[in-house]
Amino acid sequence: MITEPEASNEKQATLRGRRILLGVTGSIAAYKSAHLVRLLVKAGAEVQVVLTEAAAAFVTPLTLGTLSKKPVLTGFLRDAAAGEWHNHVELGLWADALLIAPASANTIGQLANGLCPNLLCAVYLSARCPVFLAPAMDLDMFAHPAVTQNLARLRSFGNYIFDSPPGELASGLQGPGRMLEPEDIVVQLAVQLKIKN
């Protein structure tokens, strides 16, 4: 029989040794990314955060870097004067999984159409690992045919889209569009990675 502390440790070990590339995009749900990083690290994962410019308006690189224990990547260039850059190909090869949470309508559209305006999209196009997206946007955006079509297209590419649970949104509306809670993302990510390997 497993005691409660042992069960807790077993659950924490579900991502042990996994390299997770976490993309954070410009959505109000980006505030949850700090908790998500903490949970991923607690589950034993090595986490590298890629933050889009829009996401930095909601959560700071300092917060995510402190929790992940790695510098947060925000653009292609590391040191422009020295000609140093973040190699999106190496990042895509390094990761066991690319998790984009929250995935905004804008980023979903860019990924579905092969656009590459930022480091995160470049990493996505270079990634050989499984890709997971946790959509986060308002009700009407989530229901829009363009977003529905983009999500279907991403699924057809073999990407895994987490369900968006109904609930209260930042606008005050009720319905789907919320980002799946970080605890649920970590559990589902561990299950899917086990299935895929």
Automatic annotation (TrEMBL):
Gene3D superfamilies: Flavin prenyltransferase-like. It comes from the Bacteria. Residues 19-189 form the Flavoprotein domain. Pfam families: Flavoprotein (PF02441). InterPro entries: Flavin_trans-like, Flavoprotein. PANTHER family: HOMO-OLIGOMERIC FLAVIN CONTAINING CYS DECARBOXYLASE FAMILY, PHOSPHOPANTOTHENOYLCYSTEINE DECARBOXYLASE. This is Flavoprotein domain-containing protein.
